[in-house]
Design a protein that fits this description.
Layout: H1 2-22, E1 36-38, E2 44-46, E3 54-60, H2 65-69, H3 71-81, E4 87-93, H4 98-107, E5 113-116, H5 120-125, E6 132-136, E7 142-147, H6 153-165
Parallel strand pairs: 3-4, 4-5
Antiparallel strand pairs: 1-2, 3-6, 6-7
Length: 166
């Protein structure tokens, strides 16, 4: 019993350290990596051309259940800001073909502008776990970063967007 408890304690300690290592919080107050990519609908986005706007980015992939689970909450945020020209929502799928992502997001509604790419941009940005949500301010600086499914992601993103709009 004592050995089991020691093992559990050691395991949890390593797990928490690993979680901190792969957390996206280290990205806060850094410049977001520039990119030029197009959505599955053909619209081109360049982060440098979005300066002056608040950019909310969700890194995800189809096989990530926590990623898909947060779609309804993220859609709520898009709905709230759909008429706000200074807020842009981009979902960067790091896996799958454009065609498969189109089919998938018809079944699982996702209202962000969806971009399909490989892991290169995510790795360049320092993202190791999914989902990861970022809020980028008007100057291109990351002001909010969180990794993993969060029950309150809609409220949190709304608060961070409001801060960035001030």
């Amino acid at each position: 019993m004592k050995k089991t408890l020691i093992f559990i304690f050691v395991f949890l300690s390593f797990a928490l350290q690993a979680q901190d290592k792969f957390s996206a919080e280290h990205l806060i107050n850094t410049q977001a990596q520039d990119f030029e990519l197009k959505t599955i609908k053909g619209k081109k986005y360049s982060l440098s051309k979005l300066k002056g706007k608040i950019v909310v980015i969700n890194y995800w992939f189809m096989g990530c259940q926590p990623c898909v689970r947060e779609f309804p909450d993220l859609n709520e945020v898009v709905e709230k800001y759909k008429n706000h020209k200074d807020v842009v929502f981009l979902a960067i799928s790091v896996q799958g073909s454009e065609e498969n992502v189109k089919i998938f997001t018809k079944r699982k509604k996702f209202d962000y502008q969806i971009i399909v790419t490989d892991f290169t941009l995510a790795k360049k940005q320092g993202i190791e776990l999914y989902p990861t949500n970022l809020v980028i301010d008007k100057t291109g600086k990351i002001t909010f970063a969180v990794t993993g499914y969060k029950d309150n992601i809609a409220q949190t993103l709304e608060q961070e967007i409001e801060k960035a709009l001030k």
